[in-house]
Backbone:
């Protein structure tokens, strides 16, 4: 088992390296132009890259809340059944923080909506807690992460409407229609997430996969072999919402808040170009709200087409469109997208180095 995990760890490591190489050679600008953009950013690169220490810290705190809630539930169960759950006491926040960074590094590097980091997180977390708890906590956090996206998009709509009310943003029939579609999209997602949190979703997901042509046999065999494990995982997923509402809402708020913090990255780049809406507290606040709208639109656009590895071209297009929609220049959108891509490369390298540093 240890040898298998070592081979998987190496596979993830080389996947990350390959992703960095691909990203370096898929910039829409030459290396000369890239260097010019980096020089233009100058010392602003420090807060742009550094803000992600805080973003990943908030993400890790959200996941840590879920894990700790599950550990507490297991301890209560073990006391009732006089059984010991081994290994849970050695899991530290530092470890969860490291796995958060590494998991997201792998997510950036893989297709299918950025799901590459989840198997790695389960594999590593199972060293500290039992496999079913590791699986349920990773699934729960992934759900919380996506749920946080939808809440962020939903709140951003009302931020836009508030800016419309003060005369800062336009509201045409086309824009109103798009906002209405997004609201409906988010409300449907809220309903589906609420059902998943109350009843679990692993068993239903495997059954749904069985309806895809060619996968019915695999789905049936998998369900038969792992019926008890899937049922237990679903029970643990439903347990967080049903047993520990405080942990549920704390984790969800932290995931939403991480997007708000992430928007500081775009704020720094707008300030770099002298875009501060007149300066002062009001001007900076307005610029920050614009940054939130840019991040919201870009992440919505990127997640709708998230099957592309590293979202090549999608994120760039999202930044250009969202910035242009705010009446800013397309050149600024290109600059923002390039600097964000550089930041991703740096954090992928940090993630895969942390993977090997832990092995050492």
Residues:
């Amino acid at each position: 088992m240890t040898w298998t995990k070592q081979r998987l760890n190496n596979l993830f490591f080389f996947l990350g390296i390959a992703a960095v190489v691909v990203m370096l050679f898929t910039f829409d600008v030459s290396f000369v132009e890239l260097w010019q953009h980096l020089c233009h950013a100058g010392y602003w690169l420090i807060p742009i890259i550094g803000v992600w220490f805080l973003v990943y810290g908030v993400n890790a705190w959200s996941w840590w809340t879920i894990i700790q809630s599950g550990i507490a539930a297991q301890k209560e169960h073990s006391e009732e059944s006089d059984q010991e759950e081994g290994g849970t006491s050695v899991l530290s926040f530092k470890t969860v923080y490291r796995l958060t960074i590494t998991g997201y590094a792998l997510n950036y590097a893989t297709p299918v909506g950025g799901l590459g980091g989840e198997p790695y997180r389960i594999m590593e977390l199972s060293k500290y807690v039992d496999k079913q708890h590791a699986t349920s906590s990773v699934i729960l956090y992934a759900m919380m992460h996506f749920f946080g996206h939808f809440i962020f998009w939903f709140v951003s709509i009302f931020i836009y409407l508030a800016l419309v009310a003060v005369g800062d943003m336009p509201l045409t029939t086309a824009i109103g229609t798009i906002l209405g579609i997004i609201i409906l999209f988010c409300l449907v997602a809220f309903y589906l997430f609420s059902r998943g949190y109350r009843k679990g979703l692993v068993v239903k997901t495997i059954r749904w996969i069985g309806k895809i042509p060619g996968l019915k046999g695999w789905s049936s065999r998998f369900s038969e072999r792992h019926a008890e494990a899937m049922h237990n995982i679903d029970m643990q997923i439903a347990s967080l919402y049903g047993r520990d509402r405080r942990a549920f809402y704390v984790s969800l708020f932290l995931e939403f808040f991480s997007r708000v913090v992430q928007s500081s990255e775009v704020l720094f780049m707008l300030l770099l170009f002298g875009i501060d809406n007149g300066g002062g507290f009001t001007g900076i606040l307005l610029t920050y709200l614009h940054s939130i709208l840019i991040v919201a639109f870009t992440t919505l656009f990127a997640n709708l087409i998230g099957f592309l590895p590293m979202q090549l071209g999608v994120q760039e297009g999202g930044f250009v469109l969202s910035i242009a929609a705010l009446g800013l220049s397309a050149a600024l959108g290109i600059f923002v997208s390039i600097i964000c891509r550089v930041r991703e490369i740096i954090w992928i390298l940090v993630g895969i180095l942390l993977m090997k540093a832990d092995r050492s």
